[in-house]
């Protein structure tokens, strides 16, 4: 059928009601958001953002309500979608923005694609990777992997992807979203090493929409975390309190989930796998720790400073 591109959509969307089908690749995926309120009678108040791209650039796509439980898990980073009968809306200005792996890619920020059950009822098709043709010109998923030795030179809030061998994972902890609210964030601390430094990556992992992965992080697993943000305490000793935290678009993968993921082609990931082959599993197991309370950043040594 006649396709349109994201670039053409941006130029012509105001003058149209019906749009030609779109062929796009998912580059980023946000966590699932529940926006239900007691007074509103919505059956499935869910929403998820994706960043999708074709040869002309990248745009946000929003999956609404009952389409979320149906499609969210199938739309992975790297998935190619054929979209028909979708709506175009003006962009929501306050949403989080992932950092694209390809800094040259054009971003269409004024509008977003809206996928709904009705008005109009969207038709979504997933194109298997082996049927994707090079002439469609769809961009590949690109990453920004860093090694532990590179981390100390990165600025606060820098976005990056990491891979490491887990040596410590803490228990799940809760933090209030608001001071007197009843909603909590669930998170756990983890350490991962990659052989480029004596220090591990210190990772603050909030529960994303991947409970099956979050609950099964354990020592000796190969952990990949994407779209992580650098957090450094600029006041005291900056190198001692540098860690990485998840963002709204972070994805977490552990051993057993790596097969077929786009990052397996990345050079730094391949280098890490080569390094793990030189390590003795028994030696690493002796240094591994699980559970317990992990106060971080560490409180000062004396009580007056505290």
TrEMBL record:
<protein>
    <submittedName>
        <fullName>RADX protein</fullName>
    </submittedName>
</protein>
<dbReference type="GO" id="GO:0003697">
    <property type="term" value="F:single-stranded DNA binding"/>
</dbReference>
<dbReference type="Pfam" id="PF17659">
    <property type="entry name" value="RADX"/>
</dbReference>
<dbReference type="InterPro" id="IPR040893">
    <property type="entry name" value="RADX"/>
</dbReference>
<dbReference type="InterPro" id="IPR012340">
    <property type="entry name" value="NA-bd_OB-fold"/>
</dbReference>
């Amino acid at each position: 059928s006649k396709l349109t591109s994201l670039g053409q959509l941006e130029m012509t969307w105001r003058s149209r009601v019906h749009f030609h089908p779109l062929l796009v690749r998912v580059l980023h995926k946000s966590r699932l958001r529940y926006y239900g309120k007691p007074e509103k009678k919505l059956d499935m108040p869910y929403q998820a953002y994706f960043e999708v791209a074709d040869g002309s650039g990248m745009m946000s796509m929003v999956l609404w309500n009952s389409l979320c439980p149906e499609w969210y898990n199938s739309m992975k980073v790297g998935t190619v979608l054929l979209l028909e009968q979708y709506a175009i809306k003006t962009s929501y200005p306050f949403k989080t923005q992932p950092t694209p792996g390809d800094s040259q890619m054009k971003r269409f920020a004024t509008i977003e694609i809206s996928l709904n059950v009705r008005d109009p009822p969207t038709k979504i098709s997933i194109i298997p990777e082996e049927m994707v043709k090079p002439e469609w010109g769809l961009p590949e998923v690109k990453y920004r992997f860093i090694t532990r030795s590179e981390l100390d030179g990165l600025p606060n809030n820098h976005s990056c992807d990491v891979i490491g061998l887990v040596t410590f994972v803490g228990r799940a902890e809760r933090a209030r979203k608001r001071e007197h609210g009843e909603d909590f964030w669930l998170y756990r601390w983890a350490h991962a090493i990659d052989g480029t430094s004596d220090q591990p990556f210190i990772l603050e992992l909030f529960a994303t929409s991947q409970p099956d992965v979050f609950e099964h992080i354990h020592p000796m697993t190969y952990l990949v975390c994407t779209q992580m943000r650098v957090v450094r305490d600029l006041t005291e000793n900056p190198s001692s309190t540098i860690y990485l935290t998840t963002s709204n678009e972070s994805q977490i993968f552990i051993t057993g989930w790596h097969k077929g993921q786009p990052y397996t082609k990345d050079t730094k990931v391949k280098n890490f796998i080569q390094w793990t082959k030189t390590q003795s599993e028994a030696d690493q197991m002796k240094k591994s720790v699980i559970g317990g309370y992990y106060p971080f950043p560490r409180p000062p040594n004396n009580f007056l400073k505290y």
